[in-house]
Amino acid sequence: MIRQPYSKLIAIKQWADRGLYDAVSQNFDKLSTDEASIMLRILDHINAVDTIFQHHLQGLPHTFKAPRSEKVPALDVLAKSAKAVDDWYVSYVESLTENDFEQPLNFVYTSGKRARMQRGEIILHVCLHGTYHRGNAGAVLQLKGLTPSRDAITDFLESTM
């Protein structure tokens, strides 16, 4: 039973990320050079954090020295990576047992500071972090008079009815 809210949150994240990438891809050429740079940095940051915590959940090292790439990837590269990471999270959450969500993991932040979080807390962090920064990306689009993707839980629920 404990898996259900995590599973739902990850499914919403996957859906919202795909919507954002669709909206950005359809409007990227309408952004100025500075706006496009900001957008790519936002998307890269979301993807880097998702990937970093994916590695923490797997107990694997990652190559990030900061919560962003050393060189910002192109939009199509970010979109492909985000899709793969989101798909991994959906599958991963479905594979966990009830007790797994409470299992603590030790890891090191990119700052070098040691940390300890439960698997469920990491999943929650990834979901909330993505929501915050999708809002940043949506604001960039809105300031340009463009329509961002739908991002709310209610929008997700409506889209799946």
TrEMBL record:
Keyword terms: Metal-binding
Protein name (record): Damage-inducible protein DinB
Record-linked InterPro entries: DinB, DinB/YfiT-like
Similarity comment: family membership: Belongs to the DinB family.
PANTHER family per record: PROTEIN DINB (PTHR37302:SF1), SLR1116 PROTEIN (PTHR37302)
Residue sites binding a divalent metal cation per the record: H45, H129, H133
Domain of life: Bacteria
Gene3D superfamilies the record matches: dinb family like domain (1.20.120.450)
Any one GO molecular-function label of the UniProt entry: metal ion binding
Keyword Metal-binding: yes
Pfam entry (one): DinB
Taxonomic lineage of the native organism: Bacteria, Pseudomonadati, Pseudomonadota, Betaproteobacteria, Burkholderiales
